[in-house]
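User: I'm putting together a teaching handout on how multi-component assemblies are represented. Below are the sequence lines for each component of a complex, exactly as they appear in our records. Could you produce the 3D structure of the whole assembly as structure tokens, so the students can see both representations side by side? Please keep the chain order the same as the input.
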Amino acid sequence: NAGVTQTPKFQVLKTGQSMTLQCAQDMNHNSMYWYRQDPGMGLRLIYYSASEGTTDKGEVPNGYNVSRLNKREFSLRLESAAPSQTSVYFCASSLAGALGGSYNEQFFGPGTRLTVL
Amino acid sequence: DQQVKQNSPSLSVQEGRISILNCDYTNSMFDYFLWYKKYPAEGPTFLISISSIKDKNEDGRFTVFLNKSAKHLSLHIVPSQPGDSAVYFCAASSTGTASKLTFGTGTRLQVTL
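Assistant: Of course. Below is the structure of the complete assembly, with chains in the same order as your input.
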């Protein structure tokens, strides 16, 4: 099992360019998440998908869009990149469910380091 | 409004001694707490968790303590090893919220020889 995979690992964009970050999981998890990590800010939730076919905003959704393509894949799109979006982006997945508890444990991908000039 | 706080950005401990990492939360609806470990250029990895119905959970060298009345949890690492040097994130969740986690800002642990 590869777990959670992300592509690309690194990306440099110019202001105004667009790009899509890809994420896939092979653990048959129900929920998927996108975070950004900035120095001193911890991990902040951008968007999440509780189940296939649904997406919801997290703490910092402005400037981003997401697509839950199927149960395995969850992509993050930057339509018009800005320097403030320079960050490390992590995708995660969890089994999730109404039971809570250990179902809430999230598994993370290796991250995408994005620089916007 | 930061609901999960890690007030110590960094901690340095000698090898073999105990490392204690602290975390405070404000949301009384949180009922499950997790610690993640993160090495540079890698994604966070799950370390240990605790349900709000318990006050202690142990896994090898790692023990998490939960004080619900104080809304405080701590991670104890005994004995500390150089390989434990990493950033540790505390996270919290509530049942019925699509398993969303709220993370603290992290504590960088340095274990010295």
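A couple of points students might notice: The two ends of chain B are 38 Å apart (CA to CA). The mean pLDDT of chain B is 95.
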